[in-house]
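For this section, I looked closely at a protein sequence along with its fold in token form, which I now present.
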Amino acid sequence: MQAHHYLGDLPKIGETLWYVAILRQQWVALLSFSAAALKCAVRDQWIGWDHRRQYDRLKLVANNSRFLILPQWHLPNLGSRVLALCEQRIQRDWLERFGHPLVLMETFVDPQRYQGTVYKAANWLCLGQTKGFRRTRQGYSNLAQSPKMVFVRALQSNAQSLLSRPLLGAPYCPGDVKMLLTANQMRSLPEFFTDIPDPRRAAGKRHRLSTVLAIAAGATLCGMRGYKAISDWAKSLGPKARERFGCRKKQGQYLVPSEYIIRDILIRVDPDHLDRSFQRWNEAYAGADESLAIDGKTMCNATDEQGRKTHIMSAIGHETKTCHTQKKSASCR
């Protein structure tokens, strides 16, 4: 791939599978399928999903990140045949390797070099072109450079409706719901924590309380659980994201709080203040819940003077995870 593909080799991007096509005991083609593009306007519009659902469902989309037919093997119909063979087995392979199915495949073709003939012959659908921006370490390039043709191939007949439906069950959504924060949401989060009293001493503070709490909240919204996961998520933030969260700048770099600082603040801060701040942010930025989950629990070792156990019934929004109401009761059962 490094020797013959015009883009060279590609490192592993998230969940990745490599395929080798063999004919007459010889390698004739190489392919890689990787994590889907984070953003693609024509693809997202075609699917019809919104921003809140997109991030958690990108794992159901695989990107054909490389496709190379080796020199001297450019035979008629070879490319479309190889794609068809991959389509027949990738769902099974993906499920066995990563524990969840695939619903859609995508790829990007440079129109200055190719016209996507192989993909058209394999019944892939051309959705249009990208806007031409590319990912950089700082986020996205400032200028549109080289728009690419966008092709998709549905692995299920209901791919669009499945990816855009309000709720997904197993095996498509085996874990907790996650979301992707927008730039405006990152900038807004610290503002909702500015009025919370800082439990730390004035001396030795390296990070603003609002920044630490905003990063912890952002990590939790994106599915992180535990101090280590929150800290790792913070370290993975790019320069633009760190700036939006209000991280302090030292020698030209934005610094994120350590795991110790995050844990120390979350343990000591008043939970009632945190809850009120979360509620205000949720009211301002979270979309309306399309469905509610009713959940009941019996509190362990919580009994009244008559020996009755305490029960809590809650109504929680599926999308926003907001607890809209909660009722306590005691029963002799």
About this structure: The chain has a mean pLDDT of 82. The two ends are 67 Å apart (CA to CA).
